Amino acid sequence: MSVRCSMKESHADRGSSKGETPKMTPRQRTLRFVRGDAVDRPPFHPIVMRLAAAHAGVPYRRFCLDYKAKCDAMILFAEDYGADWVTVMSDPYAEAGGYGLRMEYPPDDLPRAVAGHLADLDAVARLQPFDPRRQDRCQSRVAEIGEFRARLGEQGFVVGWVEGAVATYGNLRTLGQAFLDVYDAPERVHRALDVITSVALDFITTQVEAGADCIGIGDAVCSQIGPDLYREFAFERERILVAHIHALGALAKLHICGNTESILTDMIRTGADIIDVDHRVPSMAPWRAQLGAAQVFSGKSDPVSVIRDGSPDDIRASVRDSLEQAAGRCIVSAGCELTPDTPEINLRALAGAAAAG
Question: Deepest in the core among 15, 26, 37, 162, taking most CB within 10 A?
């Protein structure tokens, strides 16, 4: 089943019979933009987690663990700043608990793993899949998607999330040890990655069934392993996740932050509909011709030096530059998460630049 055929649209999604481009809902705007159809303006998809929590006055522990509080915060931010999406993103550990990783959630700080890592390669070899339908944090995300859909109806563009296999393996083993493992015991790593991928496929299914329009795949560590290891350990598994998302009738978003110049062609080849590009990639222009008819970039303003610390004019110039680099095929966003101390005036400038297209 293709996304083009399976995504249900209202008459307004398809546009008027007179060829007009009416004001659109966030869902209409994003679906049409990704397909390459006419839109009133590019979609605005800022990555906000700590910022959304701070804007709503929600302590970050509660933001991570109370899905209704996160829904409130995400919807409030979207309404106040004109964002065209809501997401379940908060931290990269939702699935890790199912494999035994134990987390600590400080009252108002980022979560951290405190115990339960895979201690050695024997533990890696024993890794077993779990049922995301029976794991608390996975089910919280599924409930969150249902809450978003119930509150936003068909107007909201709702994005679920899974961690990529390499990112999850790094969480379970620690990054330094994971980097050694791919050389010391590649066959064990491949087996573990297959286990992780099988769980991700199930988790994707539950999220789409709950009402997600799109599933993001976060495989951030892949910008640090180089193109050869990316192709050996990550690419095919990301492609499998994308194909499954499409078979369920949803869109796929691939997020690998950092400088992805050496793997950006492969990221596009996964078939993901939305490919995030970090500010560390000098320009999207060399890759824009590689995009398929229903693929777009998302990015790529620097969230710190431009969005947080720059002037409103800097922000507007950065958004214009990103759109020019991608020949218009770019969702307006920073390259990664906006910081929680981003000034109000700069957020307004970013939202205004998105609205101006």
Answer: 162
Q: Which residue has the tokens 């249902």?
A: 146
Nearest to 121 by CA among 171, 167, 186, 166: 186
Q: What does DSSP say about strands 112-115 and 102-104: parallel, antiparallel, or unpaired?
A: antiparallel
What are the backbone dihedrals phi and psi of residue 119, each rounded to the nearest 5 degrees, phi first?
Answer: -75, -30
Q: What angle do CA 262, 215, 37 make, to 5 degrees?
A: 85
Residue for token digits 């992805």?
260
Q: Could you tell me which residues are beta bridge partners of residue 108?
A: none
SS3 sequence of 207-257: HHHHCCCEEEEECHHHHHCHHHHHHHHHHHHHHHHHHHHHHCCCEEEEECC
Positive or negative: CA dihedral 72, 77, 83, 86: negative
Q: Are 106 and 61 in contact (CB under 8 A)?
A: yes
Closest Cα to residue 116, out of 97, 93, 139, 94?
97
Joined tokens for residue 211: 């009402």
Tell which CATH architecture fits domain 3-356: Alpha-Beta Barrel (3.20)
Which is it for the CA torsion 25, 28, 30, 36, positive or negative? negative
d(CA 262, CA 259): 8
Longest dimension (CA), the chain: 65
Where do the DSSP E strands lie in the chain? 86-87, 102-104, 112-115, 158-163, 214-218, 251-255, 274-277, 296-301, 330-334
Q: Rounded to two decimals, what is the model's pTM?
A: 0.94
Kindly report, residue by residue over 107-118, the tens digit of the pLDDT.
Answer: 999 999 999 999
Question: Mind listing the pLDDT tens digit for each residue in 253-298?
Answer: 999 999 999 999 999 999 999 999 999 999 999 999 999 999 999 9
Q: How far apart are CA 27 and CA 12, in angstroms?
A: 11
